[in-house]
Structure formats: C-alpha cells, structure tokens
Amino acid sequence: MDTFFKTMSSPVGKLTLIASEKGLRAVLWERDNPDRAGGGQGIEDLNHPVLLEAEQQLTDYFSKKRKSFSLPLDFIGSDFQKQVWEALLTIPFGETRSYGDIARQIGNPDAVRAVGGAANRNPIPIIAPCHRVVGSTGKLVGFGGGLPNKELLLNLEAPFLQTSLFE
Asked: Is there a catalytic annotation at residue 130?
C-alpha cells in the first residue's frame, strides 16, 4: 500500500504528516525516523486530501480553534499497541490520565510499563493524545516529542482562566 507525506510548521517544530489509502498513518516529529510510520514516508503529495485535512485540523488545534480531531486513522502496530492508542483517543481535551489509568481502561492493570512503551511509540501523536498521559503522581514523564513539547501541548489545552467581574 502506498503512503504519502507532506510537512507542516507548528509551534512544536516541523511535523511530517503521513497517510495511506485508509487514513492518517503518522505525525512525525522532526527527529523521528520515517519508518516509525510503518513503511516509511512514501511519496510527497501536497494535495492528498487526508494530509490537507490533517494539516488544517492541526493548524486549528494550535490556534485554539479545535478541541478534537475527526480524521480517518490507520494505526500500524501490534494489537496491544493499537488497543493503547485507541484508549488515548478517549482522553478528553484538557484532561490527563496516568499510565495506570490507561492500563486499567484496556483491562490489563498490570501492564503499566507496557502502556508507557506503547504510548511512546504512538505514531499519531497530538491527534491520539499521548501528551495527555502523565505519571501516577501527575508528573510529566516520557514523551516521544520531548518533555518541553508535552508541556507546551498541555498548556495549550489548559482551561481558560476567567476572572470575576465582581472582584
């Protein structure tokens, strides 16, 4: 199956978007190996409909105009990894979960470390929000895009602070 790619600028650096015929396959950080997408980046296609839509939705997300994504996804990984990545999709915007929470959600409470490994190998970060997974103490730990980017993404999603008109 052919894959297609395009790059985009973002607040977290240059991202490479990769799609197959089925959907978005990867969002790669600048230093990522294209093989992380399960077969390389493929052919550059600046007009691929899934890539254009992914770029627009990510642009809207970064400009605080979007809180969720609606794209066809084509995860490539083991059954366990796919189970973890699907669980990531259920974490609401602006909220976090621990690796233990995800392990319990997928019915495997003893697989905390394996969940961490799968989250770290998530090929579609931001959209499948592995940045919303934190350590059991709430500490920012492990993120393929680097902890500064994890913090940036979480701050982007932080609830808007409102001040009282009656203070």
From this structure: yes
Query: pLDDT tens digit string along 92-102?
Result: 998 999 999 99
β-pairing, 15-19 vs 4-8, is antiparallel
CATH number of 4-62: 3.30.160
CATH 1.10.10.10 fits 79-157, yes or no: yes
Q: What CA–CA distances, in Å, run from 111 to 54, 75, 76?
A: 31, 20, 20
Average pLDDT over residues 66-79: 95
Residues 6+ apart with CB under 8 A from 49: none
Catalytic residue among 118, 130, 133, 134: 130
What kind and span of H or E run contains 97?
strand 97-98
What span, in angstroms and rounded, lies between the C-alpha atoms of 74 and 20? Answer: 7
Provide the pLDDT confidence category of residue 77 given band limits of 50, 70 and 90: very high
Is 162's pLDDT higher than 70?
A: no
